[in-house]
Each structure stands twice: as structure tokens, then as C-alpha cells.
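Incident review: delayed structure delivery

Summary: a single-chain prediction request sat in the queue longer than the usual turnaround. Root cause was a stuck worker, restarted by the on-call engineer. No data loss occurred. The affected request and its eventual output are reproduced below so the record is complete for anyone auditing the incident later.

Affected input:
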Amino acid sequence: MITQIHNAHILTHSGWIQDGSIIINGNKIAEIINNSRIIEHADKVIDAKGMHVVPGGVEIHVHGGGGRDFMEGSEDAFRTAAAAHMKYGTTSIFPTLSSSTIPMIEAAAQTCTKLMDEPDSPILGLHLEGHYLNINMAGGQIPENIKNPDPKEYIPLVENYNCIKRWDAAPELPGALEFAKYITSKAILASVAHTSAGFNDIYAGYKAGFSHATHFYNAMPGFHKYHEFKHEGTVESIYLIDDMTVEMIGDGIHVPPVILKLIHKTKGVEKTCLITDALACAASDSTTAFDPRVIIEDGVCKLADRSALAGSIATMDRLIRTVVNEACIPLEDAVRMASETPSKIMGVYDRKGSLHKGKDADIMILNDELNLEGVIAMGKEINID
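Output delivered after worker restart:
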């Protein structure tokens, strides 16, 4: 089937095209042209009415949606959560597990493997956020599941499940450097998370393979004072390592807009991506979270004792609106941080993350208020009503 999106303001890998067209053949972008003339052999024509046509969002940190959590491990939970986020512009997704037991990880990995093998699946791999985290920085993680890295656990999991594409850990823990060396040797992204590491631990972790920072600024200390002496935090340490990439929860709550702007200014578009860190209640009418310890209040998920934020209810379109409208980040940068940069971080930029001939037809259509008007995933229109 040939579909043409015309009369569009298109963000390509080399910049904006005004009044252009995208030709889709099946699930691929066949051509991007500098005019809006309707081609003769189009089976379907979509009039973008001058709106912004941009790459679909690539979500690399999301726990659930549509009332379901990926920790459930079931096929129904995975499908429901992924489909819920697709209605809000996420066309590629790496399901995330909070700190889990080994049986829970295995169940989710089996489901993820099955769904990844399906044609045109939005699910690209599994992200494990933990359970090798600093217990003192647990935040919304389940504390009883947290422990030090154990090769008797992680080696069999990696060897048995090729779906694992990212694994987070605190680099200061015993065995964490060996863990990072091992998983990166298997082409798995190692990310710093839920940590109290200072510069020496962050630098050692970086040398061992940690190249990314999980929900930057959250569950990690910044510059602080201990007794009379001042110390760098994890935040400043990551800023100092130019090659480390970061992700920021762009809901304007987990990280205030001025800090979103600082991250963008300091790390830049090439090293910064947007994530939702959304829980099961996101992209749904649910008023409760999957985790009974969590409440929804002030537009965000919190632990019930209000000791920490515990995840978001954000969706991909909200991230873009927030960083543009509240953090004053240019639209093209916001879109790139939602698509291009995460796809590069996860090694899928050959087919995802930008509008380019031959790439997957994953597209968002945004109006001038940056509200979502349309989603196309692998060439198929998604019902966003």
C-alpha cells in the first residue's frame, strides 16, 4: 500500500522541509519530497494541513501504561501497555522492569522475546532497571529485591535471553565494574542508576562500560556538603565525562524546567534523550498505580509517605510540549531528543529515530500547539481517539 502525507512541515535528518510530502510504501519511508503534489499511484492521501510531521518517539525507559505494568510479565500486559503509549506518539519501546526477582525477569524476558519476533512490533528489547542498586538511593524501587551484582544471576540471564538490551546498576557496588564489563561485551547498554557515586566511582564505572545515566538528577546526589567539607555529586561527575549520555524525565516535575534547560544546554541534543519513566497508570484513566505503595498526586507518582517520586504519568507528546513550552527548548531539539538520540543510544538508528528514505515509517503529526493529531507506526495509522 502506498500512502502519501502531503502539505506537511517535515523534520528530516538534515532539517525542516516546508510544504513537503512523505511517501510510505508498506512499512517503510519510500521518499521525502519538497512539494505537496499528490502522486498518481497513492492508495491513500493524508493532508497534514501544514502541521509538524516528525519521527515517532523512541521510549527507552517506561514501566507500563494503560493500567498494566511490564513487571507482570504477561503477553497481555506487554501488549496493553505498548498499545496505550503508541496512541501518544511512542512508536518504539523498550519495556522497563523495576527491581525484580529472577523469576519475574525470566517471565518478562520470555514475553519480550516472543513479541520482538512479531512483524512490525514496536517492542525492541528489554530494559532492566536494577536490581543491582544502592539501597540508600532506592527511591520508588522495591527494596527487598535490591542486592549487589551477582554473576551467578546475570550471566545466565544474558546468555539465555537476547532480548535484554539495557541494564542499570550503581557503579559503587561490589562487583559492579565486572558486571558492566560483562554486559557491554554482550552489546547491552550499561547505565548508572540509583547511586550515590562521586567522581572516582563514576569515572571507574565509565571506564568499565557505564556510558549512560538513568533519569538524570533523580535518585542520585548533586553537589553537597558533609560536615564542613563540600563534595561533588553524581550529577557533576556525569557532566564532567563528555561521552556519557543522559536521559531526563521531561514532565517538568521530576526535573524542574530550568534544570531541563540546563541539561540540554550542557549535554546537548546529541547526548540527551527524553523518557517518560511512566508507570501503569499512564496513558489510562487509572487513578491507582500497579505498586500499592504508590499514590498519584500533583500530576506525578509518589511513594505514599511522600518521601520520593516514584515514576510519572507522562506520555511522549507531553514530554515534547513540556520541554518546548516550559523549558524553552527548540521544537526540533525536543523531537530529536525523543527520537534520534534514544535510537542512537540503543543502537537502532539504522531503522528508527529519523525520517529518512528506507527507514521504518514511524511518524507523529503535531499541531501548532504541539498536541498530537496523528500517529503512524510501521506504516499503519494508530487510532488516537
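Verification: The longest helix spans residues 102-116.
Action items: add queue-age alerting; document worker restart procedure.
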